[in-house]
Amino acid sequence: MVEKGSKGFEVSELGEKMGIKMTSTTEMSFDQVRVPEENLIGDLHKGFYQQHKKAGWNFDQGRIEPKWTSMAKMYAGRVGVEVAQEAIQIHGGYGYMLEYEVERYYRDARITEIYEGTREIQKNTIASAVIGKRG
Questions:
Q1: What pLDDT digit, counting tens, does each position of 64-101 carry?
Q2: Nearest alpha carbon to residue 112 among 101, 97, 103, 122
Q3: What is the DSSP string of 7-71?
Q4: Which domains does the chain have, with CATH numbers?
Q5: Which listed residue (3, 103, 116, 120) is catalytic?
Q6: Rounded to whole angstroms, how far apart are CA atoms 76 and 88?
Q7: Is 101 designated active site?
Q8: DSSP letter at 1?
Q9: What is the pLDDT of residue 14?
């Protein structure tokens, strides 16, 4: 864990987003940051596998299956967007208006197909796992 105020660690705001406005989006810069050993969380160089809740149980069992987490993320994102689009359709012109919550639901659902790996990245992960097992 890098503590706020550590030498070489900077956080910069990236600006306003289309959706998920309740959180800020920042860029973090690490320039020769020194992290004390007692700040290490989990195993060194294994952070990706320790920060995903969906993979937590498999990880605890000693099984790491990026293919399954990629499939779940891609499917959940797609379904969320489809549901939000249908809600806008049902509300007609009102669904497109900022004064109604339904437009926010779409914006917030849409980002789930982008952050933590776009659909294309998820497809690459799935394809690599499938192709790798054929050979």
A1: 778 888 888 898 899 999 999 999 999 998 988 988 88
A2: 122
A3: TTEEEEE----SS-TTS--EEEEESS----GGG--SSTT-HHHHS-HHHHHHHHTT---HHHHHH
A4: 1-40 (no CATH), 54-134 (1.20.140.10)
A5: 116
A6: 18
A7: no
A8: -
A9: 86
